[in-house]
Amino acid sequence: MRGSRPLATGTRYFPLLVPESLLAKEAAHVEGFAPQVAWVTQAGKDQLEERLAIRPTSEAIIGTMYAKWIQSWRDLPVLINQWANVMRWEMVTRLFLRTTEFLWQEGHTAHRTEEEAQEETLRMLEVYRDFIETELAIPIIKGQKTEREKFAGAEKTYSVEALMRDGRGLQAGTSHNLGQHFSEVFGIDFQDIDGKRRYVWQTSWGVSTRLIGAVIMVHGDDAGLILPPNVAPIQTIIVPIWKSEAEQEVVQQAVGEVQDTLPKHLRIEADMRAEYTPGWKFNEWELRGVPVRMEIGPKDVQKKQVVLARRDNRKKEFIPAEELSARLPALLQEIQRDLFQRALAFREENTRQASSFEELGSIISEKRGYVEAFWCGDAKCEEEIQAKTGATIRCIPFDAREKGRSHCILCGTESGLKVVFAKAY
Amino acid sequence: MRGSRPLATGTRYFPLLVPESLLAKEAAHVEGFAPQVAWVTQAGKDQLEERLAIRPTSEAIIGTMYAKWIQSWRDLPVLINQWANVMRWEMVTRLFLRTTEFLWQEGHTAHRTEEEAQEETLRMLEVYRDFIETELAIPIIKGQKTEREKFAGAEKTYSVEALMRDGRGLQAGTSHNLGQHFSEVFGIDFQDIDGKRRYVWQTSWGVSTRLIGAVIMVHGDDAGLILPPNVAPIQTIIVPIWKSEAEQEVVQQAVGEVQDTLPKHLRIEADMRAEYTPGWKFNEWELRGVPVRMEIGPKDVQKKQVVLARRDNRKKEFIPAEELSARLPALLQEIQRDLFQRALAFREENTRQASSFEELGSIISEKRGYVEAFWCGDAKCEEEIQAKTGATIRCIPFDAREKGRSHCILCGTESGLKVVFAKAY
After folding, report:
1. Which of A176, B7, B226, B412 could be bridged to A154 by S-S, CB 3.0 to 4.6 A?
2. What are the chain A neighbours of B272 within 8 Å (beta carbons)?
3. Pick from B13, B36, B255: which is nearest to A44 by CB?
């Protein structure tokens, strides 16, 4: 049954263009984003009186609406998600990972209490971890961003961090506790249970098309994509093999029969094109990352079997037709699990310890990957390490304080904070 | 089984920003859209060397990609659809019907032959008619736009036209045969079967969030929205009625039981909020246009019945609980059909004949609605009629030439072309 506040939950759409005066209301926010904003200054033949930003993110425009909508504690929480394009001007772009325009979802919530906002922030971080590990088969480190790396305007930023096969770190998703930074400047207040007016506590969180880049960079190989079965648009491609017209007829019929017997929830297609050879099709579907190729030739028809070839490790198996509807779903699950395990093993191999600044520098320059090292917590040390090595603190993992005590690798101050460094995109 | 060209069909996403030089390639296209373009001229602190248009439509950017992708007749047809936001600067906006930014789908296809492109153009027009009539319950006139009203850059534009309850016409969707206008200037050519290089024939077609406005304007009344059951997010809202806590318990249990027995494909919610009265909820869900309200009170529980109240005509019926799972789906279908019939009757009542210019003018100024009248086919007459009456030719209906012959209401030239005039949004 429905809860008590149907209006404030769900998907909404807000305008693309944000007047400069709104973007500028939160000082840290505009300072952080202004260098990356694309500005609309003309419409038709007219010069606009005020510049309009193509949204780099929507806190300002959504906050403006929340100030109108939220009046009473009864209106809280507000839990709204937007699917949208955003734009952040980039000096150097990299396909899917860093593009001037990208697509994302951005959630924006408003709460009555600070505790509720913090809960929401961590709940969404966990939603992202679960999705990325379970569906995309990419292992994640959950942690908090440093003050220097946090979202412009946030109180605290948390992230899910992934390691790409080239040894670079990728921020795969973020969840921000915005505190009352935006509610105070946008005037998002409400009458509380005790009759007093208070400002709401807000969160925002997002993942983007960057995750497509992560899938490509974590699982792919020189032959092309390798898609995790859970998210592959085609999980199994059937490639028929024939030489004569007589064989073609027999094989086509067998393909049809196989398709009829397979579980309907599987995403299976058959590539029946006569103008391409089986070899060409093998390459084509490898390139596209289809997890399993099913080959059916005249001999297989005779033997009442099919060949299943895995995209990830190229292993082949011959499966009796009668076992196929049990074997194929199991195989897809095995591939999903193996992809995660392989990525996890890669991350573990490429996570190294550094007990000195020199060690950090040489690992980063020679091997990349993650480097765990103690840091004093001072932004000056963080900045200097980045300037000299190119590595940034990816996050302060949630278990950072459970890894003993040592000395900051730069300044030597005693510290109980073991953080993760990497070169990032 | 899959067809022969898997790469060229489906949903794709193209960039938001279109360099001015691309937009300008097709002369009629840029002339038509430039007055409405929002221009990005700055990024961060930098002045851009070339202005970038926020896409008013995507022929230019998609055509640029098609020129790279399409090489051979084997690559054709290309059938791509994009879901996106677009922007057309408007002097006067009207919620949902005419907004500076709107959301739409835009299909862009490329074909080997002119015939195929024309077929595709009309096929999509029919898809729109079917969707709007069947799902949105809005009666449609299919027809061709005049030269003056066609899409900037198109060879021919067809539209589906709807009549709003305030007597204004609304272009509800369009499908364009682009001929070779874009392929020639963007260089979208291919090697044909005979070895010769030829330009592709293109179409584009779209419907937008304007359709939401159409639903509001066609079906709604002074109490709020009336949503057709086929597209209502909530088809039936259950409002429980109780006075005492004992009654509340009994009614809540009955609501749960009713929900368990109803067909799962129906979209039903129960508004169990204790902080609002049943009367408040009645108004709230009427405002939101839910097609059917189901009331369950203590007496209904005793009598093993529920009350079904229609949003559209406010009729109520008492239904034995055991008949509900058959009656409710049937009632929703009746409402869907009745909404269409009511809108159709309204359109028929508001479609009038004019045999002179004066008659057209007085109908348009006094009654609005559709006016059928003969027109010579000359853009000058069309323009003068608009200038003097405010009415435009909504379309040349597909059956315009089957309605006899008479004289152009303005210039008197003999004509076999009976077209539809209206004031439009």
Report:
1. A176
2. 1-2
3. B36
Give the pLDDT band (50/70/90) at residue B7. low
Two tokens at B322?
């055991």
Q: Is the pLDDT of residue B404 over 70?
A: yes
* Chain A residues closer than 8 Å to B37 by CB: 43-44
pLDDT in tens, A109-136: 999 999 999 999 999 999 999 999 999 9
Query: Do A308 and A165 share a structural domain?
Result: no
Interface of A with B in 83-122 (CB under 8 A): 84-85, 87, 89, 101, 103
Say what the ipTM of the complex is: 0.92
- Residue B362's domain spans which residues? 351-422
pLDDT of B4 > 70? The answer is no
Place of tokens 């990957």: A369
> Residue A338: pLDDT above 90?
yes
Same domain (yes/no): A53, A21: yes
Among A347, A373, A408, the domain boundary falls at: A347
Q: What is the pLDDT of residue B255?
A: 96
Cβ A17 vs Cβ A40: under 8 Å? yes
User: How far does the CA of residue A256 sit from the closest CA of chain B (Å)?
Assistant: 8
Q: Are residues A89 and A35 in the same domain?
A: yes
**pLDDT greater than 60 at residue A265:** yes
B39 to A41: CB separation less than 8 angstroms, yes or no: yes
Window A:243-262, CB contacts with B under 8 Å: 255-256, 259
| CATH at residue A357 | 3.30.110.30
CATH code at position B242: 3.40.50.800
Whole-number pLDDT of residue A9: 84
Pair B151, B57 in one domain: yes
Q: What residues contact A201, with CB distance under 8 A and at least 6 apart?
A: A110, A111, A112, A113, A114, A116, A117, A177, A178, A179, A180, A183
Same domain, A23 and A97: yes
Q: How many domains does chain A contain in total?
A: 3
**What are the pLDDT digits (tens) for A168-181?**
999 999 999 999 99
- Within a domain: A1: no
Question: A395 and A264 in one domain?
Answer: no
Calculate mean pLDDT across residues A60-68: 97
B270 touches chain A (CB under 8 A): yes
The CATH number linked to A212 is 3.30.930.10
Residue B349 banded pLDDT, cuts 50, 70, 90: very high
Work out the average pLDDT over A182-204. Answer: 97
Residue-averaged pLDDT of chain A? 95
- Bridging pattern class, strands B141-144 and B78-87: unpaired
Chain B residue with the nearest C-alpha to that of A74: B275
Whether B1 is in a domain gets the answer: no
Q: Do A16 and B54 touch (CB under 8 A)?
A: yes
**Chain A interface includes B44 (CB < 8 A):** yes
| A241 and A183 belong to one structural domain | no
Whether A230 maps to a domain, the answer reads no
From A164, A190, A219, give the residue that closes a domain.
A219
Q: How far is A368 from chain B (nearest CA, A)?
A: 31
Chain A / chain B CB contacts < 8 angstroms: 96
Are A233 and A318 a contacting pair, CB within 8 Å? no
Is B224 within the bounds of a domain?
Answer: no
> A34 in contact with B at a CB cutoff of 8 Å?
yes
Same-domain check for residues B56 and B106: yes
Name the residue among B4, B51, B85 with its Cβ closest to that of A16.
Answer: B85
| Residues A214-232: tens digit of each pLDDT | 999 999 999 999 999 999 9
